[in-house]
Amino acid sequence: MLSSMILGRYIPGDSVIHKMDPRSKIIMTVLFMAIVFMANNTLTYAALILFVLFVLALAKLNPIFVIKGLKIVFVLLIFTFLMHLFLTKGGTVLIDAGWFTIESEGIVRGVFIGTRLVMLVVITTIMTLTTSPISLTDAIEKMAHPLKKIKVPVHEIAMMMSISLRFIPTLMDETDKIIKAQSSRGSTFMTGKVKDRIKALLPIIIPLFVSAFQRAEDMAIAMEVRGYTGGEGRTSFRVLKWTFKDTLGIIFVILFGVLVWWLRT
Amino acid sequence: MNILIDDVSVTYQPKTPFQYHALKNISTEFRTGKFYGIVGQTGSGKSTLVQLLNGLILPTTGTVKIDDLELKRRTKYKMIHEVRKYIGIVFQFPEHQLFEETVLKDVMFGPMNMGVSEKDAQTRALHYLNELHVDPALYEKSPFDLSGGQMRKVALAGILAMEPKVLILDEPTAGLDPSSHKETMELFKRLREELKLTIILVTHDMNDVFEYSDEVRILEAGRIVESGPTEDILTDQKLLERYSLNLPDVVRLSHDLIRKGHTIDKIPKSIDEFIVEWRLRDA
Q1: At what angle do helices A154-184 and A202-225 cross, to 10 degrees?
Q2: Contacts (Cβ under 8 Å, ≥6 apart) of A18
Q3: Which residues contact B18 (CB under 8 A, 6 or more apart)?
Q4: Are the CB atoms for A24 and A246 separated by under 8 Å?
């Protein structure tokens, strides 16, 4: 059910992209997202697609696997496309059914915006697929460090992020276990009327909450006894290292941005 | 109820980088009224096997036959629901599945899902709670106010109240103190005799398997590598070592004593039994 979902998942690997500094990956992703919004004609959109395919190849990820894993996003994609199809006017009228018309500009816009959406999702997915959640939060903590000057609790926020990321798989497993235990007791939340299904969620949610709170308490105690006092004076076990390939990567993305700027109309 | 597993394979997340073959072409049989022990290293496929019997996981290929009910790759939910009437699973730490407002209601949850009337479900719940020696003063309390041991008993009563014909136990004694451990295992033994249950016990505890089971299945890397009567398999040190399993304590002790020249005709089922017999011998 949830098994093929890859949003936010991490797959260990040894590609160039995997080995890059998470900070440079975040910067490159943000840059690329800005570039995506510069594209406005067929040529620039084609360039975006080629660029993403190139990055996928560098990360040694199978495009088909990534597309399959993003099925959930396609609902949104189709919705966006249909909105443009029916609501954007301009160009030649292709179908005129009286109460609605489909015009060529609608199709073009629909395809462009759809591509834009897919590019944004795929590039961020590449980032999470190739970067472990822990190094991602490390990177965010490092990059947000200057905010400490204006009393933003950067370390605490990063800590909260890494704890919640850390517990996503645990809670998923827990949910799976409880679902199985309740289904073997004949709970029928997969079939029947909507009302019954919602009612059948209770036997899953209640034990899940109970165990989540229990876990949180255990965790708090474990941190306490190990003398956790927050970020002051803490050193890090994993030291982030900025290398030449990170600089190179960012330059490459900027150059690509220049290219897109030059190609746009 | 006879369970027949015919050439079953289970693959998790096929055609992705996470693809994993949990079971590979397994064929075996579980007969009415017997007590089976399933042992194997962590990750050998034990828990996949038990979930298969309950329709929680469907075979990727092959069939599971439970008398005339069949579970296959695309079996409909109705059929699975039917199977669950007859096959009850007690998962590891079953107390984590409690959710109702009161102990009594929680025990009634299973039977009512299976279409038993509220009145009958209550009768059953009272019966099995009593059977498990849960204090009647607790029946109207919230299950979350009970102690760990009590919670486990309530969860167990919840499964028994469904009156399954086959009871699958996945590490039922994990985290229990020695006396509760003994009490729980004795309870299963008694239930089996009283209710003519088939019991399938999945565990790492070789002592329990030796003491209670009639037959053993050893799993390794998704295959059943040994199956046969408990006293044959669990006394064979060479064979167990091949699968990194330990001899039951009482067997090891008996072997040591035999090597030292003592005669032991039949290895007792447990250390307790051994001590009793040894004392009789001296007397």
Answers
A1: 140
A2: A12, A59, A130, A131
A3: A3, B12
A4: yes
Which domains does chain B possess?
A: 3-247 (3.40.50.300)
A175-199 confidence digits (pLDDT tens): 988 999 998 898 877 677 777 778 8
State the best of B86, B97, B107, B163 to mutate against chain A, taking most chain A CBs within 10 Å: B97
Q: Give me Rg for the CA atoms of chain A.
A: 23
Q: How far apart are CA B62 and CA B9, in angstroms?
A: 7
Is there a contact between A177 and B91 if contact means CB atoms under 8 Å apart? yes
pLDDT digits (tens, 9 = 90+) for A78-126: 998 888 888 888 777 887 777 778 888 888 889 999 999 999 999 999 9
Nearest CB neighbour to A207, from listed B12, B54, B97 = B97
Cβ distance of B51 and A180 shorter than 8 Å: yes
**Rounded Cα–Cα distance for residues B157 and B163 (Å):** 10
The interface pTM score, or ipTM, of the predicted complex is 0.86
Q: Report A:166-195 residues touching B (Cβ under 8 A).
A: 177-178, 180-188, 190-191
Element of type H or E holding B70: strand B69-71
Sign of the Cα torsion B241, B247, B253, B255 reads negative
CB pairs under 8 A between A and B: 67
CA angle B160, B162, B166 (to 5 degrees): 70
CA dihedral (B254, B259, B261, B264) in degrees, to 10, reads: 30
* Residue A6 CA neighbour count, 13 Å, CB half: 27
* Helix/strand/coil percent split, chain A, to 5: 70, 5, 30
The dihedral sign for the CA sequence A82, A86, A89, A92: positive
Round to whole Å and give the CA distance between B72 and B86: 17
- Structure tokens that stand for B248 in this block: 């039951």
Q: Residue ranges of the domains in chain A? A: 1-131+239-265, 132-234
CA-CA distance, A105 to A89, in Å (whole number)? 6
Amino acid, res. A170: T
- Quote the CA–CA distance of A134 and A132 in Å, as a whole number: 5
Only one residue has tokens 């006879």, namely: B2
Place of tokens 């109705």: B78
